[in-house]
Amino acid sequence: MMLRIPRRGFAQVLALIVILMINRLVSPQFFNLHLQDGRLFGSVIDVLNRGTPVALLSLGMVLVIATGGIDLSVGAVMAIAGATAASLADTHSLPVVLASALAVGLTCGLWNGILVAVLRIQPIVATLILMVAGRGIAQLITEGRIVTFTSPDLVWMGNGAVLGLPTPVVIALGMLLVTAAVVRGSALGLLIEATGGNARASELSGVGTRAMILSVYVWCGLCASLAGVIAAADIMGADANNAGLWLELDAILAVVIGGTSLFGGRFSLVLAVAGALIIQAMNTGILLSGYPPELNLLVKAVVVLAVLLAQSPRLGDLSRFTARWRRTKS
Amino acid sequence: MTLKALFAASATAALLLATSASAAELTVGFSQIGSESGWRAAETSVSKSEAAKRKINLKIADAQQKQENQIKAIRSFIAQGVDAIFLAPVVASGWDAVLKEAKEAKIPVVLLDRDIDPSGKDLYLTAVTSDSVHEGAVAGEWLAKTVAGKDCNVVELQGTVGASVATNRKKGFDSVVAKNANLKVVRSQTGEFTRAKGKEVMESFIKAENGGKSICAVYAHNDDMMVGAIQAMKEAGLKPGKDILTVSIDAVPDIFKAIAAGEANATVELTPNMAGPAFDAIVAFKEKGTVPPKWIQTESKLYTSADEPMKVYDSKKGLGY
């Protein structure tokens, strides 16, 4: 198994470090850590913990985007899975609850996959259907109210700890390793990239592009449902109106910040997760800074722009050009 | 006109035959926005029970968030010749034409929960709404009274940026803070009215304010954010309700569970009973010709642990919140 950490990850790692340093400036206790009820406690842990849903979403999203597709329904799938888990939590055991929620995610992914791979509907339209309908389905499950639960097993999924780390972080890390093992430990990752690079050429050279596309949407649905369960477990309730709302956009942003092109082709799992952490580090920093909330979105936009500019190939050319110009001058 | 008279006559006749109810029995058509939130669902179910209490025949039309559906519903109520129309307007503008039709048919219109543009001022009888600035002030006054002159650093969980309810609830609370030098809002961020965001923002507040030790009270623009914030405080090893005072607005059932458990201190009710006062106004108007004031403000009642929170919880949990 090869976990490819490509050289192109430089911009993202740098961005993450810079943002963490800025957070340290606005809030001197940013890197402080202590144990609280057997769980590490501190702002850095918050970044990891709060970043988990988007990180999980981006793990599925990056594969979908690598095939040249997009999945707008992940936020709604989160809401459905969370609603399913919350309504079963107090009457069923954790394995049953988890299995049902994940089955819901798989089904949603399969639906998207069939629309895109078999019926050849454009991904943005195909997944838009579930994005709109999914929240309605979640509201039907919860009957429009916030369904709360007390089952300690499910609460542990959101608020528990494994070796001091919050459970959601451990789950996300596990999912990253599993996904990496599956797609990079075999030729699967290459085949996905081939499908996104040139579907027709790949098809002709024997790649089962239809199966590739179908499976990435299913995986994306699965990741989204896991994120939904965690989000519900975190607040001990399923809020069908707000769970995962607009998170599909954060997930797409995380993938793009991670350097994967929306046109498909090459992708990086680790950098997509790094993208999710960059977004969350920024969010947490804004909350710690004490700026008025009216500035939140503006700050976010400026930082994202800066990260994307740092990756822009044109800008890279420009800096090389100025370097050469300086050399010739001296 | 004749249709209406005919309808009223036949309805009264039918009622006289069927039951021994008084001839004054009223039929009210209610154009409800939809059921987008738990509060809205509660408003609908309270309207039904308030109507039943007064033996008023209530017809509810769910507009599913669409103004065109509301206009259709009002026209159909006019055609049916109801005695009064209740309207919870989804938007503020675009009501003049249809309300004129109701006025021409001499059917009084009562606005519930939300107001419309001033151009329609003389097209409706009265508006029953809550004053969200006042709600914020009630929350602030409770805090001022509770800390009784001691210095108190408050952190505020705002509603969605730009939402008028959030702006007003902040304004009302700030007006009390301005009068009490011992109260100080040290941090204010948006929790977007949701539990998840309320929890996340509170986690950061706790870290930024010396592990929560320098926070004396939390003020949240709604109860849902407070429920999230309470979890964040508990996870940080703090005792909400004791180490940190809490006051929020809405009075949804779950906050009463927290109050009963000693984890929350106070909530200000945004009553789902907008229809009750509206029915009273209509009955008085129909029977005695009393013209109600243009604005009937609902009570912003404060609840604390002294108000038997579990009892309130039981009475509220079936309302559809």
General description of the model:
- The complex is a heterodimer of chains A (330) and B (321).
- With 330 residues, chain A is mostly helical.
- Chain A has 14 helices and 6 strands.
- In chain A, strands 1-2 form a two-stranded antiparallel sheet. A two-stranded antiparallel sheet of chain A has the order 3-6. A two-stranded antiparallel ribbon of chain A has the order 4-5.
- In chain A, a hairpin with a 2-residue loop joins strand 1 and strand 2.
- Chain B is an alpha/beta fold and 321 residues long.
- Chain B has 11 helices and 12 strands.
- Chain B has helices spanning 2-18, 38-53, 67-80, 96-104, 132-147, 164-179, 195-208, 223-235, 253-260, 275-288, 309-317; strands spanning 27-32, 57-62, 84-87, 109-112, 126-129, 152-158, 183-190, 217-220, 245-250, 266-269, 295-297, 302-304.
- Chain B has a 6-stranded parallel beta sheet, with helices on both faces. A 6-stranded mixed beta sheet of chain B has the order 7-6-8-9-10-12, with helices on both faces.
- Chain B is elongated and about 65 Å long.
- Mean pLDDT of chain B is 91; it is low at 12-23.
- Classes of the chains: A mainly alpha (330), B alpha/beta (321).
- Chain A binds chain B through residues 27, 29, 32, 36-37, 39, 41-43, 46, 50, 143-146, 148, 159, 231, 234-237, 239, 241-243, 283-284, 287-288, 290, 292-294, 296, and chain B through 35-38, 41, 158, 161, 187-190, 192, 194-196, 199-201, 203-205, 207-208, 224, 227-228, 231, 235-237, 254, 320-321.
Q: What does the secondary structure layout of this molecule look like, with pairings?
A:
The complex is a heterodimer of chains A (330) and B (321).
Chain A (H helix, E strand, L loop, with lengths): L9 H17 L7 E3 L2 E3 L1 H24 L7 H16 L4 H25 L4 H20 L4 E2 L3 H8 L1 E2 L2 E2 H18 L3 H10 L1 H6 L4 H27 L1 E2 L8 H11 L11 H21 L6 H16 L1 H17 L1
Antiparallel strand pairs in A: 1-2, 3-6, 4-5
Helix pairs in contact in A: 1-12, 2-7, 2-10, 2-11, 2-12, 3-4, 3-5, 3-10, 4-5, 4-10, 6-10, 8-10, 11-12, 12-13
Chain B lengths: L1 H17 L8 E6 L5 H16 L3 E6 L4 H14 L3 E4 L8 H9 L4 E4 L13 E4 L2 H16 L4 E7 L5 H16 L3 E8 L4 H14 L8 E4 L2 H13 L9 E6 L2 H8 L5 E4 L5 H14 L6 E3 L4 E3 L4 H9 L4
Parallel strand pairs in B: 1-2, 1-3, 3-4, 4-5, 5-11, 6-7, 6-8, 8-9, 9-10
Antiparallel strand pairs in B: 10-12
